[in-house]
């Protein structure tokens, strides 16, 4: 739920009427699992501009503003160079390009020419470009926060104020902010920052992505969070999306102690995915490149290799050789394991300029994923060639699937193209309800299916997956979504072919028991979620998983489903 609800001794009420209670719970979206507790430290707000100043020397003023943007761009690039986190580095580099953008600089110069001082010229220029991003929607709209951060840094530089960023109170703390920019999150030191709570942000915001990659519990879209007083003790549950107030230092210590116990219990869990009575469910990793595999693979393989990261932010498509090298690196990094390569998933939230796709009024319903082949089949064919060559060179046979498959005809065409290149295991992502309803027919053409619950929710519930306010519709515990999963699993069983889940739903340990009960054969997730899911499954019997699936399919409300499944599962664990 995105809406903040306060539960305290007096029951439940919507935040906004009474916020940040002395004792109670604020609710947001849990986007990075784990529990923590500590004192709140709020991030300093953006620098405030003084009243406009008269401009005596426009050239000097313009130079001051442009220099501030250049300093910000250079600082962001330097941070990108210093971080060892490849994903964070790429995000910072993209933000540095934004700060150095000639269009932004020109707008600043025009503003100064129109009579504004340097600070106001930067502020107004950023606001202008920000509105353009918001109007573009989707992926672009989420980048508006990056531009806000550039504005704050550049205005601070113009005014000679310190760079806004992470506070340093001298003790571990729970960081509370309106939203976090990539530059902030890169500097987070997990030894001092215990958890993240933001008022804004959605499941795909930078706060969410980077918190997950650092294993920090995080709650976003938590209304009322900014009204929690500085230095107040809070607990953060990044799985349930809850922020508890009104606790004391001893309660916090107890929560941290339990969280540490839980971490060591999780660290001790190893081996393949199994229920308590030995029913196997493959546990796999979601990755964007070989770098995500780090030192080793604590999983049975890779369930989703999102190849589009190789294509993002580029003016030209990566060439055949470059693609072969990238795919081969991943295939070689998972010796003996399974690797599911997803072909290019472009469009909407993942725009690729070199495809030169025409503007669409409703891009989420437009030329996305496999549909790119309708206008640029050459790009997808080169990619299949490169995957086939990487397989030959590494001696590893990949599983290859296409995103956004909708009809049996599309599946048959993709399978024919892949098989013609010697690829033997060909599948499809199930992200469109029409495909889920025809899963059995798709499996006549394909060897496996992988359910992308992020997009399947978006399309089944007609709710933009990046829309924080609609997060309740996108809750993967919604019975409507689970019915579609059940239909795919049933078709897989009938065909004797694997059907996995690789959307975020697979990363919720309790929901993993439901998905297992529905009959999915694998669960694929980002690395920090593996141990909690493995450990939960290992304590739960297949019969309990199946009963959990029935509860979730019958529930009219996702929160009720979650609570009932949690209770019944805890009862089995206690028995
Ligand atoms: C999904 O849609 O669930 C999925 C895994 O694909 P992506 O998040 O990359 O769109
Ligand atoms: Mg998807």
Automatic annotation (TrEMBL):
Belongs to the PEP-utilizing enzyme family. SUPFAM superfamilies: Enzyme I of the PEP:sugar phosphotransferase system HPr-binding (sub)domain, Phosphoenolpyruvate/pyruvate domain, Phosphohistidine domain. Its EC number is 2.7.3.9. It holds the Pfam family PEP-utilisers_N. It comes from the Bacteria. This is Phosphoenolpyruvate-protein phosphotransferase. Residues 27-143 form the Phosphotransferase system enzyme I N-terminal domain. It is found in: Cytoplasm. The active site is at residues 206, 502. General (non sugar-specific) component of the phosphoenolpyruvate-dependent sugar phosphotransferase system (sugar PTS). This major carbohydrate active-transport system catalyzes the phosphorylation of incoming sugar substrates concomitantly with their translocation across the cell membrane. Enzyme I transfers the phosphoryl group from phosphoenolpyruvate (PEP) to the phosphoryl carrier protein (HPr). The gene is ptsI_2. One of its GO terms (molecular function) is phosphoenolpyruvate-protein phosphotransferase activity. Phosphoenolpyruvate binds at residues 306, 342, 454-455, 465. GO terms for biological process: phosphoenolpyruvate-dependent sugar phosphotransferase system. Mg(2+) binds at residues 431, 455. Residues 173-241 form the PEP-utilising enzyme mobile domain. Residues 1-31 are annotated as: Disordered. InterPro entries: PEP-util_enz_mobile_dom, PEP-utilizing_PTS_enzyme, PEP_util_AS, PEP_util_C, PEP_util_CS, Phosphohistidine_dom_sf, PTS_EI, PTS_EI-like. Keywords: Cytoplasm, Kinase, Magnesium, Metal-binding, Phosphotransferase system, Sugar transport, Transferase, Transport. Residues 272-540 form the PEP-utilising enzyme C-terminal domain. Its cofactor is Mg(2+). One of its GO terms (cellular component) is cytoplasm. It catalyses: L-histidyl-[protein] + phosphoenolpyruvate = N(pros)-phospho-L-histidyl-[protein] + pyruvate.
């Amino acid at each position: 739920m995105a809406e903040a609800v306060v539960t305290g001794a007096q029951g439940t009420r919507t935040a906004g009427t009474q916020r940040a209670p002395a004792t109670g719970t604020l609710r947001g979206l849990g986007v990075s699992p784990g529990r923590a507790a500590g004192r709140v430290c709020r991030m300093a707000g953006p620098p405030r501009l003084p009243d406009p100043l008269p401009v005596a020397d426009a050239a000097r003023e313009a130079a001051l503003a442009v220099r501030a943007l250049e300093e910000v761009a250079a600082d962001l690039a330097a941070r990108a160079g210093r971080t060892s986190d490849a994903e964070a580095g790429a995000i910072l580099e993209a933000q540095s390009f934004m700060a150095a953008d000639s269009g932004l600089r020109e707008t600043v110069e025009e503003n100064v020419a129109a009579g504004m001082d340097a600070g106001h010229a930067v502020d107004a220029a950023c606001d202008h470009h920000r509105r353009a991003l918001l109007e573009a929607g989707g992926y672009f709209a989420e980048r508006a926060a990056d531009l806000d951060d550039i504005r704050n840094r550049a205005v601070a530089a113009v005014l000679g104020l310190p760079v806004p960023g992470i506070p340093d109170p001298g003790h571990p703390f729970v960081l509370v902010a309106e939203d976090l920019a990539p530059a902030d999150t890169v500097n987070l030191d997990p030894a001092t920052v215990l958890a993240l709570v933001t008022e804004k942000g959605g499941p795909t915001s930078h706060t969410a992505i980077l918190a997950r990659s650092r294993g920090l519990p995080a709650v976003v879209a938590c209304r009322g969070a900014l009204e929690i007083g500085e230095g107040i003790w809070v607990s953060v549950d990044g799985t349930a999306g809850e922020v508890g107030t009104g606790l004391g230092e001893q309660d916090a210590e107890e929560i941290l102690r339990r969280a540490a116990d839980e971490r060591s219990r999780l660290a001790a869990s190893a081996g393949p995915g199994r229920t308590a009575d030995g029913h196997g469910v493959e546990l796999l990793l979601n990755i964007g490149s070989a770098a995500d595999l780090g030192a080793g693979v604590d999983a049975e393989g890779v369930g989703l290799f999102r190849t589009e990261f190789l294509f993002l932010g580029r003016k030209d498509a990566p060439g055949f050789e470059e693609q072969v090298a990238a795919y081969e690196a991943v295939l070689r990094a998972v010796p003996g394991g399974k690797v599911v390569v997803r072909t290019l998933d472009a469009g909407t939230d993942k725009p690729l300029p070199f495809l030169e796709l025409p503007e669409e009024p409703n891009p989420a319903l437009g030329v996305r994923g496999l549909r790119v082949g309708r206008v640029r089949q050459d790009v997808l064919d080169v990619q299949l060639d490169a995957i086939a060559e990487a397989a030959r060179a590494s001696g590893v046979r990949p599983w290859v699937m296409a995103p956004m498959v909708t009809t049996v005809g599309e599946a048959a065409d993709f399978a024919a193209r892949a098989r013609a290149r010697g690829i033997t295991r060909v599948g499809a992502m199930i992200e469109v309800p029409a495909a889920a309803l025809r899963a059995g027919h798709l499996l006549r053409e394909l060897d496996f299916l992988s359910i992308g619950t992020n997009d399947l929710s978006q399309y089944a519930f007609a709710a933009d997956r990046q829309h924080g306010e609609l997060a309740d519709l996108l809750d993967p515990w919604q019975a409507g979504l689970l019915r579609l999963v059940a239909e795919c699993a049933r078709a897989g069983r009938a065909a004797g072919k694997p059907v996995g889940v690789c959307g975020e739903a697979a990363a919720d340990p309790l929901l993993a028991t439901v998905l297992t009960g529905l009959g999915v054969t694998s669960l694929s997730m980002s690395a920090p979620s593996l141990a909690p899911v493995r450990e939960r499954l290992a304590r739960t019997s297949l019969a309990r998983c199946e009963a959990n699936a029935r509860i979730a399919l019958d529930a009219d409300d996702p929160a009720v489903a979650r609570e009932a499944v949690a209770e019944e599962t805890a009862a089995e664990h206690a028995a």
